[in-house]
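Exam revision sheet. Question 4 asks you to relate a sequence to its structure. Input first:
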Amino acid sequence: MAVAVPVSVAGAVRVGGGVAGGRRTAPGGGAAVVVAIVHGVIPGNWRGGRERGRGPDWLLTVSTAGSPPSGGVAAVCGATVQRLTVVRTSVRIGNMRWDAQRVDQEDPALLRLPGLVRTVRAPEFAGVVFHEVRARSVLNQVPGGSRMPFRWTVNPYRGCSHACTYCFARNTHTYLDFDAGQDFDSQVVVKVNAPVVLAAQVRSRRWRREHVAMGTNTDPYQRAEGRYQLMPGIIRALADSGTPFSILTKGTVLTRDLPLLAAASANVPVGLAVSIALLDRDLQRSLEPGTPSPQARLELVRRIRAAGLPCGVLIAPVLPGLTDAPEQLDALLAAIAAAGATGATVLP
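Answer key, structure tokens:
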């Protein structure tokens, strides 16, 4: 009996698990039947055997038990399921490589992430996977030997969709068993309970209300902040506890929180800085493909200043042969001054 179900096929995906051998025992005790995805339909022999279609890159394993089901199973290579026909419960689809793309679906390979709640792929964030975790602590103490002018940081996100090729924080992603390249850009860990945990930590009698720096590892106003909205709660927790803080960002999402930041500045010192390393739009697309344009960040500086808040600009890094020409730096500094920045810091 052949089953043909319309599906949306965006590309071929090799499904692992040794299906090339044909029939095998499947989870749940059924028999595994290999079917093929060809030209947008799934043909298959529910009584056993296999059809290779266009080769092993197109193989899919379906577990069956008993007589053939009357319905069909929709599957997709590299795209989301558009239609799924419910079949008998004796039909099971094993762990497929695209399972991690489903909302509320945990990737077993990532269970080592402490506090993992779920893994999410949101349609509005193409190519980015969010791993939502519940953190036990969000205040990070800077090592004693560090030359940083602060002792405490808060990073609600790990990994950064800004995808800056020169980012010094990339190697920290390897601590989570991700790689420092594409994974850093696309596998973003979200501390979904960061505001609540931080509020409890800064209420502690042991907390001495020392300065807290944000944006020192990954950007707290990367695009994910538009979805998760963690920063308002973090700002309130710090301001309500009398804790001074600073934020360094490339993200224009910060504009949303300007009223809150202005109110916080009435209670505690608030430092804001925008990172702008260059003006050339083509170079920016190459080096910082996930960031707002330099012009958008200059506008962010203007809006921060219009809200009555000080705003510095960090020009970093200065890249030899790319952004270090005197005329490039002169033009950048002139644009920063015209935006009303209260200062600029240049770092190699």
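Marking note for examiners. The two ends are 67 Å apart (CA to CA).
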